[in-house]
């Protein structure tokens, strides 16, 4: 045959995976060195920025922070890591429910907006403005309001998480659905395809990369929403509660707060990675087209 | 001549863009009979792509009458009386080759076994065996265009509309696909309306070449191509081929077809909505 | 869809263009007025408990009567947000330029920046409070800065490294040096990306400042105001504070968007790349 498949020779999977792992190790070592180096220099030189001085309280050794996870959280109590594990699971539940709620609402809104320019012009400014309202500010109202209707407090937190989640999904759904190649639409029109068929077979698959880009932002946002939402909701069982609690004892055991934040960071990254993995499975298309 | 009704019949068709500011087409009369291979040729801006889209009911004419397969263009579209091939393959890159070919059949709600049988036939027809599970980005431009031809033929439409389908391909691939298209056309017995701006391609493929002139788009004349069928690589070397090419060129010149090129009228007036 | 066939529009008189954009905003204004009226009507008609959802007229009145405390607090918090935004965005852009000097390094580090962006950074607000003192504006600026840093870093790296190779080759053919290539190609190419990051960062900076206050802060700060008012069920005052915060947040965003428009007049649309 005169024409040959223009398939790119791809790097073997294991090599790029090994490279990634090596890079990861290098980044961790670099961060560790930066941290401990800064601490060492700061302590030697008595560095001071405003009220900030480098000492064991503001900059605990990393091994102390990690070690703290395996100490009892309080006298004769369970290990800190057990406490934080439970708290992380609790917050994860709130965040996951919030994500599901927010992503669904955001998607439906996006589809609605994509089909009506009038709706776009009348509602879009407020959807954008909604995100400038500090969620923390509305959180107490949400908790009181939902609590009054018999919802558990953790669900109020989920609603707050959903508030942060829906926005990127709406915007990117709208963007994805309207970014379809006009010739593809002409093609579907030549098949006399119904609006529903066009949505399912063209608009939706074409907007998947946009959707997943939004899901990645939202995965982080829902964890943030859950942690922040716990503060005014006075939910004690999650990571937000733990942060508020350990914050009060920072002067004696700063490592507890640091360790809690470490777990919170891990939770955020786990949520993000779950979306990345799902995307790898679901979106199969030209590598350069993946947004 | 042919007893059967014509596949495409255009009477006094005109098209204006921008409330009469640009007359893209004027007074177009055209008849395409079953089994014919008609090429529309003309310089950029003569409205040949616009005309094709009017036949396909993808845009509406400003005036005149369009009859496709004895019905209105709209009814013909709804009855899937034509398949269309664009300059770019317009494949859905999340679908494999076979799923791209099956797309129109899905909109027609064919069942799965019928669908896969038909897809197999088509994969054989366009010689893409072994590439069924590939994604479009893994194929060369020529192979992508073959997928799009197979897709257009999938539901056996009596009419095939092709809008500069080989315009983006290199010369060698183009000549190969020209031959394949002739073979497919003869095997399927369908009628083809083919837009091109290559004179040689038009003469080589067609039974009739319709020459158009720009501003406003008009039909200048028609050249009947009496080259023997089946045609092959050697057809281009025949003296008659050169004569026909000269004749088309002469018609183009009388129609003002060799003026400085300008962008297609549609493109000039496409304004991004956000830009306003 | 995204394109329509229309007649060529003469650039038009100013009046016509203003009229057009007024018409574009008309539905939004209608929704605003209708929404406020509906809110007012529902709250009054259904007699909703005032502490949950006060009518907009009450909120507006409070915004006026409490203007000294409210706007003072809002201004205090706004300073924290802007300070953090400037700090974080400059750090983000500088770091990105540094990394993009070696594109393979930037490409290798990008996934880690993205992962770091997935960390709920706001949870570190108590730590900056402990570092710089809770009553100090610096502690909020720092957390706001860290929040702004990553999106700006990621977007700038993307912008600086997503240049079409032909453009670089063209510059090479002019024997242009690294600096010229940066000034003439990479930086202009990155601008839309950078502005996308800067706009996202305005919202984050406001959140950082307010939430930072929530973990302990000066009595002058908006976050503390909201918390205290909500704590004593003075929801009209809390809502008024929220409205004040939102107005400042919107102004902040609009200001950056306006600068974007001025800077990038050459772009057909100010949509920018995906966020």
How would you classify the quaternary structure?
heterotrimer
- The string of secondary-structure elements of chain B, in order, is EEEHEEHEHHHEHEHEEHHE
Mean pLDDT across all residues of chain B, rounded?
84
**Total beta strand runs of chain C:** 1
Helix content of chain C: over 70%
Strand content of chain B: 15-25%
As a whole number of angstroms, the C-alpha radius of gyration of chain C is 23 Å
Low-confidence stretches of chain B: 259-276
- The count of strands of chain B amounts to 11
Measured on Cα atoms, how large is the radius of gyration of chain B? 19 Å
Mean pLDDT of chain C: 79
Tell me the major beta sheet of chain B: 6 strands, mixed
Measure the end-to-end span of chain C. Answer: 21 Å
How many angstroms separate the termini of chain B?
Answer: 54 Å
What is the H/E order of chain C? EHHHHHHHHHH
Shape of chain B: globular
Number of helices of chain C: 10
In brief:
The complex is a heterotrimer of chains A (291), B (276) and C (275). Chain A has 291 residues and is mainly alpha-helical. Chain A is 74% helix and 1% strand.
Question: How would you characterize the overall build of this protein?
Answer:
The complex is a heterotrimer of chains A (291), B (276) and C (275). Chain A has helices at 13-45, 62-68, 80-114, 117-130, 135-147, 153-178, 182-190, 195-233, 239-248, 254-282; strands at residues 48-49, 52-53. With 291 residues, chain A is mainly alpha-helical. Chain A is globular and about 75 Å long. Chain A starts with 12 loop residues before the first helix and ends in a 9-residue tail after the last helix. Chain B has helices spanning 48-55, 73-78, 97-107, 112-125, 141-153, 171-188, 199-205, 239-254, 265-268, and strands spanning 8-17, 22-32, 37-41, 63-68, 71-72, 82-85, 159-163, 191-196, 208-213, 218-224, 270-272. In chain B, helix 3 (97-107) packs across helix 4, helix 3 (97-107) packs parallel to helix 5 and helix 7 crosses helix 8 (239-254). The longest helix of chain C is centred in the last third of the chain and has 37 residues, at 178-214. Chain C is globular and about 75 Å long. Classes of the chains: A mainly alpha (291), B alpha/beta (276), C mainly alpha (275). At the A-C interface, helix 1, helix 4, helix 5, helix 6 and helix 8 of A face helix 1, helix 4, helix 5, helix 8 and helix 9 of C. Strand 11 (270-272) of chain B pairs antiparallel with strand 1 of chain C, so a sheet runs across the interface.
């Amino acid at each position: 045959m005169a024409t040959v498949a223009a398939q790119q020779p791809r790097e073997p999977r294991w090599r790029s995976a090994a490279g990634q792992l090596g890079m990861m190790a290098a980044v961790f070592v670099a961060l560790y060195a930066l941290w401990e180096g800064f601490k060492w220099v700061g302590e030697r030189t008595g560095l001071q920025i405003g009220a900030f001085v480098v000492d064991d309280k503001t900059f605990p050794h990393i091994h102390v922070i990690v070690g703290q996870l395996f100490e009892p959280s309080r006298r004769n109590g369970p290990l800190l890591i057990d406490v934080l594990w439970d708290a992380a699971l609790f917050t994860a539940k709130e965040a996951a429910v919030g994500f599901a709620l927010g992503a669904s609402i955001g998607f439906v809104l996006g589809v609605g907006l994509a089909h009506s320019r009038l709706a776009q012009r009348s509602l879009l400014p407020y959807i954008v403005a909604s995100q400038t309202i500090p969620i923390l500010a509305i959180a107490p109202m949400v908790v009181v309001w939902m609590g009054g209707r018999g919802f558990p407090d953790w669900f109020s937190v989920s609603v707050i998480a959903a508030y942060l989640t829906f926005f990127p999904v709406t915007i990117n759904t709208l963007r994805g659905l309207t970014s379809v190649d006009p010739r593809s639409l002409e093609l579907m029109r030549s098949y006399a395809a119904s609006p529903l068929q066009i949505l399912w077979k063209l608009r939706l698959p074409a907007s998947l990369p946009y959707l997943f880009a939004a899901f990645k932002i939202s995965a982080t946002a829902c964890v943030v929403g859950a942690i922040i939402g716990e503060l005014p909701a006075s939910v004690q069982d999650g990571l937000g509660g733990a942060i508020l609690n350990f914050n009060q004892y920072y002067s004696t055991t700063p490592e507890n707060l640091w360790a809690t934040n470490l777990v919170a960071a891990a939770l955020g990254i786990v949520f993000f990675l779950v979306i990345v993995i799902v995307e790898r499975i679901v979106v199969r298309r030209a590598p350069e087209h993946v947004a | 001549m042919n007893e059967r009704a014509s596949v495409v019949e255009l009477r006094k068709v005109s098209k204006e863009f921008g409330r009469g500011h640009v007359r893209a087409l004027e007074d177009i009369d055209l008849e395409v009979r079953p089994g014919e291979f008609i090429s529309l040729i003309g310089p950029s801006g003569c409205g040949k792509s616009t005309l094709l889209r009017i036949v396909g009911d993808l845009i509406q004419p400003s005036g005149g009458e369009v009859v496709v397969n004895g019905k209105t263009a709209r009814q013909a579209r709804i009855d899937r009386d034509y398949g269309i091939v664009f300059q770019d393959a317009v494949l859905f890159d999340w679908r494999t080759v076979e799923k791209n070919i099956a797309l129109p059949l899905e909109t027609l709600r064919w069942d799965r076994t019928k669908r896969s049988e038909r897809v197999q036939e088509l994969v054989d027809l366009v010689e893409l065996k072994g590439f069924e599970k590939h994604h479009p980005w893994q194929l060369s431009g020529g192979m992508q265009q073959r997928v799009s031809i197979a897709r257009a033929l999938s539901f056996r439409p009596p009419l095939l509309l092709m809008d500069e389908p080989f315009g983006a391909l290199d010369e060698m691939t183009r000549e190969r696909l020209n031959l394949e298209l002739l073979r497919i056309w003869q095997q399927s017995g369908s009628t083809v309306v083919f837009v091109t701006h290559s004179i040689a391609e038009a003469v080589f493929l067609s039974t009739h070449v319709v020459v158009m002139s720009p501003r406003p788009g008009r039909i200048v004349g028609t050249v009947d191509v009496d080259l023997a069928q089946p045609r092959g690589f050697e057809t281009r070397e025949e003296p008659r081929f050169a004569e026909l090419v000269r004749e088309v060129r002469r018609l183009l010149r009388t129609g003002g077809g060799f003026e400085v090129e300008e962008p297609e009228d549609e493109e000039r007036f496409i304004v991004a909505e956000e830009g306003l | 869809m995204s394109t329509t066939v229309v007649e060529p529009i003469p650039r038009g008189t100013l009046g016509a263009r203003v009229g057009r954009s007024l018409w574009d905003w008309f539905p939004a204004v209608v929704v605003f007025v209708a929404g406020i009226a509906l809110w007012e009507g529902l709250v009054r008609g259904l007699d909703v408990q005032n502490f949950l959802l006060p009518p907009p007229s009450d909120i507006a009145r409070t915004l006026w009567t409490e203007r000294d405390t409210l706007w003072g607090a809002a201004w205090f918090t706004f300073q924290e947000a802007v300070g953090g935004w400037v700090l974080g965005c400059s750090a983000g852009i500088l770091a990105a330029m540094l990394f993009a000097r070696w594109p393979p390094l930037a490409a290798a580090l990008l996934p880690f920046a993205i992962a770091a962006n997935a960390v709920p950074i706001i949870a570190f607000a108590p730590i900056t409070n402990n570092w710089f003192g809770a009553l100090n504006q610096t502690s909020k600026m720092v957390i706001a800065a860290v929040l702004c840093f990553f999106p700006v870093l990621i977007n700038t790296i993307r912008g600086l490294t997503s240049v079409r190779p032909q453009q670089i080759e063209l510059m090479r053919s002019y024997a242009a040096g690294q600096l010229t290539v940066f000034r003439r190609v990479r930086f202009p190419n990155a601008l839309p990306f950078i502005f996308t990051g800067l706009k996202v960062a305005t919202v984050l900076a406001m959140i950082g400042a307010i939430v930072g206050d929530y973990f302990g802060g000066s009595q002058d700060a908006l976050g503390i105001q909201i918390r205290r008012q909500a704590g004593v069920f003075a929801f009209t005052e809390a809502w008024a504070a929220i409205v004040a915060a939102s107005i400042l947040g919107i102004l902040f965003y609009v200001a950056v968007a306006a600068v974007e428009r001025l800077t990038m007049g050459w772009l057909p649309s100010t949509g920018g790349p995906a966020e």
